[in-house]
């Protein structure tokens, strides 16, 4: 990337090569990337929350009671815990779970 390309990002080109100018451009690029990632996370959170909020009234309107949903809830909890433990097991001794268990063993 040369000075002209960098200047196009900010609007005006410096006369001499300027490391502060380049740093400012890279800083703005990084801020935009962080902002885009934050927007994606926020959109995903809103979408999941909305889907959960719509699911329960629709299930209740379809005649799905809490007694009918209890086995599905237990299954979801077991699958979720299994997923969490598998993710932690892959991390090895650096996982939060391994460090917590290590401290527990030390205190006993």
Describe this structure in words.
The structure is a single chain. The chain is mainly alpha-helical and 108 residues long. It folds into two domains: 1-64; 65-108, no CATH class. 82% of the residues lie in helices and 0% in strands. The protein has helices at residues 3-10, 19-61, 66-91, 96-107. 0% of the residues are buried. The model has no long low-confidence stretch (mean pLDDT 83).
Strand content: under 5%
Distance between the termini: 59 Å
Enumerate how many helices there are, as a single number: 4
Specify the structural class. mainly alpha
Please estimate the helix content. over 70%
Question: Strand tally, please?
Answer: 0
Number of domains: 2
Mean pLDDT, as a whole number?
83
Global Rg: 25 Å
Major sheet details: none
Helix and strand pattern: HHHH
Low-confidence stretches: none
Based on CA inertia axes, which overall geometry fits?
elongated
Quick recap:
With 108 residues, the chain is an all-alpha fold. Helices cover 82% and strands 0% of the residues.
Map the helices and strands.
Blueprint: H1 3-10, H2 19-61, H3 66-91, H4 96-107
Comma- or semicolon-separated keywords:
single chain, 2 domains, elongated, 4 helices, 108 residues, mainly alpha, 82% helix
